[in-house]
Amino acid sequence: MKNTLFICLFAMFALSGCVDDEEEFVTGGNISPELTPENKENAVLNTAVFDQLNLDYPGLEKVKQYHEAGEDYLAASALLEYYRMRANAENPALSLVNITLNKGNASNNFNDGDQNIADFALEYRFFVKGFYEGSDKKPYSLGKAGSIDWNKNASVGEEYLKQLHRHQWFIPQAKVYRVSGDEKYIKSWIEVYSDWITQNPQPAEGPNTTSWWQLQVATRLIDQVQLLEYFKHSDNFTPEWLTTFLTSFAEQADFLVKYPYAESGNILVTQGQALIAAGVLMPELKNAQNWLDKGCSIANAEVKNQFMADGWHKEMSLHYHISAVADFYETIRLIQANKLTSKLDPEFNEYLRSAAEVLIHFTYPNYFEKGSDYIVPGFNDSWKSNWSRSTISKNFIKYTELFPDSEEFKYMATAVNGGNAQGKTPGNDIKVFGDAGYYVMRNGWEPSSTVMIFSNNKSNDISIDLERWSHNQPDNGTFELYINKRNFFPDSGVYSYEYNTNTDSGKARLWFRNSENHNTLTLGKVTEGNRYASDFKYAAGKLLKSPDMLIYEVAEKTGYSNGGYFGKAFKKYWGVSPEEYKSYFVLVDEGIGEATGDLHLNFNLCENKDNVVLDAEQKGAHTSFADNNNIVIRTFAEDNNSITCQEKEGRFSFSSSANDGYKERIAYSIDMNKADNKTARFATVILPIEKYTEEKEISVTFGECTNNSISVNVTVAGETKTLSYTL
């Protein structure tokens, strides 16, 4: 129908008679003067765009013709038409069909939903995730029409300013525009972005820490290739605006080529992703091939460099780990969709396999049950607000796409929310991430299962020196314990990314990073000045003792060819199944060396403060939840009279924004004075119970101990076990 209409119109125009020479030139000799785009002075354009274009690119013939004739406005009009009609690049991350608007979170008054974000932007309240003004949680205002102040809310903190320049409200505006067709949203985008371009020129000295930091630039580019597609058919998307948009786009892409991020962290991954997107999706621009080559060079190098041999991302934060894998995934999709696979290392996907598998083992079993919360641990700079069940499941779907041969990925992608599980359940054996220093112990994958994860991140390898990575926290020895849908020891969290220690949020960031606010051993009183990684010494992550055999292997070694029969015989003798036999946890902490002072063994319990009871006299605590899912904690020393128990401030943060606040929780320390070079030893028993009873006997006595070995006798409910290890 479209082609037929064009032919008919062409025939009519051909019969309309001759035109004069001026009209002949303007229309190319075969287009009606009435359909010729409005011509304006070249001065209304950003003519620098023509220096950024490859005018010999297929499809730009008319653009080149007009430009060489000095008719730049008509050239820009032809360029706009080209972009509206082009089909030379595919962005698999973008779909303009059946757009679904995000409704947002009720805890934020739905102000983080797409519609509200778009409407707030009309009032110059620009959305920045996690930062809100007032109790009604509106985005901060940046002024009014004609006077946008991009530094108005600098007092909110440096992290706010960084994220402000990522323009997080533009994509929601574009989606709302696409759904509603209301031109006010594109008018707002053009006005605000034009103002930003004017007020935020590229710094002559290179990257700054806010508007032209590499992560901000990269994020903007990734969004801009989508924004062009959302808005380009609008009457308000004029040739004038197109030239401004493209010139700014090219400038920012060139900037990323010139200034690669110095550290091999998550920012460099995003930088590579942005350059690939720019090169693939904007091939008409003169430097597109250079962007693509540089982006692929970064991606090919960093897919090998970003992850340690055990699969863990070098920043040792699950948040940044998942994000890095996701960025590489998007790069793969884009490259494949545009038939450019030769640009990536042939083993590119496989380099990601072990990294993707990390998420399997760091997912708590409540992931499989609807309505549950806190489904991944919050070690280092990670936070539960970002990792909902739907977000995690979407990542497993991506991993299934990357690795269709993996039965475990298939299971994790399909069994969520009690779905129709396919594939194979992952194993229950202890997972040792020796390079990162993470250790995962679990007894199953049902929501009622038990999982304990230890964090003891390594620092003895310069390539993963913790002092080089800002997203790691000084908390070696900390742990989380998940039992039957409850995390009894959630990590304290992040709270804020504010690094200015002169601000309230900056001081609070120090508090949440503080070693003593994690479940670990500390020496002395932590002061305001020594809470960052560079001021701490780290223990190297090492698993001291690891059972190498699974239950069925134990059965075989003891002469039972039938593992099920072994289980029945075990239960008859011990009264519990093999899985239930390890019914409590014993944690041994030692302070070895010549350092002296006050030792503090710190415990920070679950967020439900009213359900945690401090048992100071018994050197521990217990929980009192009505659902019969509780724990008792007791700590012992070689001389129990040498230790005391003291309650202290406890906090728990859900996000990386001080604006979201935190909850109070019960926290305490077991204290001992270390007066000489004699080793100080603690043994802590964590006993899962249904209901707390003071009659429950728990005791620990120390046997023969050296600086290389330890032996403890643990008695629980009248049964004594001797536990030991040797380094």
Structure commentary:
A hairpin with a 2-residue loop joins strand 6 and strand 7 (486-487). Mean pLDDT is 85; it is low at 1-34, 460-469 and 526-548. The protein has a five-stranded antiparallel β-sheet, with no helix packed on it. The protein has a five-stranded antiparallel β-sheet with strand order 9-18-13-12-11, with no helix packed on it. It is an alpha+beta fold. Among the domains are: 1-33; 115-201, no CATH class; 431-726, Beta-galactosidase, Chain A, domain 5. The protein is built from 22 helices and 21 strands. It starts with a helix and ends with a strand. It is elongated.
What is the CA-CA span between the terminal residues? 80 Å
What is the SS-derived class?
Answer: alpha+beta
Number of strands: 21
Shape: elongated
Quick recap of the structure?
34% of the residues lie in helices and 15% in strands. It is built from 22 helices and 21 strands. The strands form six sheets. Strands 3-4-5-6-7 form a five-stranded antiparallel sheet, with no helix packed on it.
